[in-house]
Amino acid sequence: MGHGYSFECPNCKSSVDFLEGIGFCYPSSLTALFSGENPELKDNAPAEWKTVQTLLKDGWNPVDYKYQVCYCPDCKTLEECTVFTLEKEGAIYTPKYSCTCGAELQACNPLEMDIPFTITCKECKTKFSAKPNPCLFLWD
Prior knowledge:
The protein has helices spanning 26-35, 39-44, 46-57, and strands at 2-8, 15-21, 61-71, 78-88, 91-93, 106-107, 117-120, 127-130, 135-139. The chain is α+β, with helices and mostly antiparallel strands. The protein is globular, with a radius of gyration of 16 Å.
């Protein structure tokens, strides 16, 4: 379960949704993580992906896994990331995600942001500026 934020693309009127939480994807997400098939991490943070694979082989375990809305402080874009934490004997490792501009993405809450941000429509790829007043919804 979780919640999400929905924005409407001004070009094609599609709903652009950002999810937060675990939902029912948790077991399949962990399978992807353990098998090295997490495309988001592999595509957006290749060095992190290699590190995670090494840590998993060394006995590190995922202790947190969820969808999280992230924000780029440089180009002001919102992204949906699957974030997780690995743990072994009290040590913690959390991969870092980077925006296409190279800046590190930061976890955020769109409802608490007081500046406009940029969203890319997943359907038509139009980039549009959105004010922090999305529709909030619950999902499973």
